[in-house]
């Protein structure tokens, strides 16, 4: 490999707010003891990259502030220039859900952003797809092996005849039977599966493979009237027809004699849907048709400094353009709940957020844990000392717009603007629930690095650090580390991401699509299995 | 299709015990009102196949007996010859876990069965594989897309050079991060994954793909000393070496530059393991090396009449041959707990069974349900009115041998004989937990029909009815419906299954293997996700 040596960068720390008494070290590889910053601060010990340095002498018990928030109390006296690692921080209690500020902030109204568009697939139900995919819904894990077999055959034998169709996928999952389907919490996985079936990228073409004896019967998964059925005889004849029948291949159907008869049924059914999908063409639609889900995973201290603020800026652009943006991950906003309730458009939205936080507090408590179970070894290695600090860096993805709606896990969007979609922070569960909400584009920020991808929607991955972006040059779609390097501003990166979104929504492939990296659908099932 | 008409069968009902006051209709398609049986009983209404008919007049509130057990009370007076469907049965309360009979039954000691063997792969740890598979362990769902990509390349480019290796698979799952890994119940999914890695069919070759920042670090999944590491330099030099290192490909390793460098690392690591696996040969081993997991799914009223009793007879043969048999599915034995505690070899084993039942009762209660959440629409359509009746038909898979041990979910076997491995009844979760216990052969009975299969072990599927076996002729490996047809006895079918097991263990492919039907590993995680 050839490499051109760059001149060493001057020592740099990044402070998020002028009231903060700690900052993080920006330089690759960290900085040694004795390093002197431009303002005269001298490191009394080595501080790794992304980790915190005390800007002033901190007394034992003193509040340690970052993002202008108390991320903990000093466990002992900490001299200026020291490494403030997680063992020196005592984590505060979770903010009580009583007495929160409700819709107190009137954010400066954001001027509309007009004239931006992308090339998308308009659907009969009014939504717009960014991809044109045949998705085969499954009611139960029992049919997964058969559907896999059929999908391989469809891709090899049918798909070449339908060049306008991007892909054929089975919507496989572990739910559907062997579960307490009448438990109160079973509504979460059931509506998640129902709503994923209706994701805009599947063109309102609904076909189902069922076993026959499973608990999650097709009519329970997709009750009559739950979606607009495209009439099977004629693509022009679209509408909510009372006579339209759910298109189900049932493996236990007595007409099936021999394994290949099941495969033949699935293929024949798929072919009808492929014909209609193949007749569709992209058309120019306003940027307001974007439905973006944002999340982070493999976070480090740069997540909240580079990638997430750029996403937050872009979130504001999207909201100004009339689009929909979902942010999620309950345990990563729990410690900033006061920021969210104050940004709610009204008391009802704030109450819905509090309801979701309270539900999750209780859910975690039933399992004898709390929100602090969120942080990972990688987070801590990356400089994030605790969930409070992680949350402050995560929440900035939501930008500054008013929060106009809240979704419980698995619910489908009913409105535009900035939406809080309550989900676990687990990358796969969050992504699966955002798919159910109706996401047509996914933005994922990462500091430690993850090859995350979904078969259902394009995923734009944003690196928080240039080192990661360099090493993972064919996995990361955008390098927000340039902000820490002083090569781009948050605003510039935000605009770059916005333009990249429009391109990807129009068909440009992401790296995860290039390599066909597909993670599993993982359902959130808070109810028991049987 | 040509078909030769068979003479219609005489009307037949099947009574399980002479004290029963109901029996099930055996004939295909059920029997119409007016049908008269050989003993003079006349049907007062149509009764579907597998459903119950009252053999005598039942008074309102009278105990309805099947398998010599009270499966419910008559909701109203039921005349002889009536269809006793689920709405006519009031389900009894679950048997209290106090005051159970403990180790009271001394089953007639079963004479040893000698001289049976199969051709298996002996492993360094003493276990025996029935297949020779390279399994790539993953710590976290994040790496699944990359591992899928690598496995496709390994199969296409490396596997043809190693003809003695049956398959290469990724052990993918939804666990590893975004989970409350320090919650008390997290021990279940973690030990499940650990023990699956050590399944006998993987030849003690352990290789791991890790992301790097995940909660389930490789050293936490497989702590030093948790398994016998095959020395990497020399296949002959096998043993527990303190210096041996866990063979991990970490995607976030700084040495990885570009996606293909990750794939190259995985392939190079896989090649070393493939070389050693390929050098192995099958050798004759006694039948006592079989470790059989039995379960049922898609059950009907015939499950407990044909397939499960045949499996139970075969279970006794296996125990007599010194082999290991696991039966499972907590909610399907809960109503027969008194039968199990009385068959326990000692008080300790009985106490362990009670502990597992109590744990599950509590787990279901936390989710506001009970054991009755088990039954499915298909069960009821197939004639099983409630969980008590289903359980009586399920429990017979355990045969008559003393129960010599109990495993909590995810634990690994430490002894031979008949073992109660406590698992949910969910087919995939049960199969996954039996894999973790060390199963090298899986037996699955089904009445409604399921194409169930696993990539990790061969699955022998046994049909409860001839109609299913005829239609699913290339999915069902054995037809126990011949028992109901009067063409074979339970003993004959049990012996047939025993011989089929030895053949399949020796390499004969099952139908699920023929079509490569693979269901997902589904972990039992009673702890919260974050
Ligand atoms: Ca996150
Ligand atoms: Ca996440
Ligand atoms: Ca190696
Ligand atoms: Ca069962
Ligand atoms: Ca089962």
TrEMBL record, chains A, B:
UniProt keyword annotation of Manganese present: no
Biological process, per Gene Ontology: D-galacturonate catabolic process; galactarate catabolic process
Pfam families recorded: GD_AH_C, GD_AH_second, SAF
SMART domains, A to Z: SAF
Class in the EC hierarchy, top level: lyase
Record-annotated SAF domain positions: 20-90
Annotated InterPro entries: GarD-like, GD_AH_C, GD_AH_second, SAF, SAF_UxaA/GarD, UxaA_altronate/galactarate_dh
Gene3D superfamilies found in the cross-reference section: 2.30.130.110
Known EC number: 4.2.1.42
Keyword Lyase: yes
Origin: domain of life: Bacteria
UniProt entry keywords in alphabetical sequence: Lyase
GO molecular function term, any single one: galactarate dehydratase activity
Family membership: Belongs to the UxaA family.
PANTHER family: ALTRONATE/GALACTARATE DEHYDRATASE, GALACTARATE DEHYDRATASE (L-THREO-FORMING)
Protein name: Galactarate dehydratase
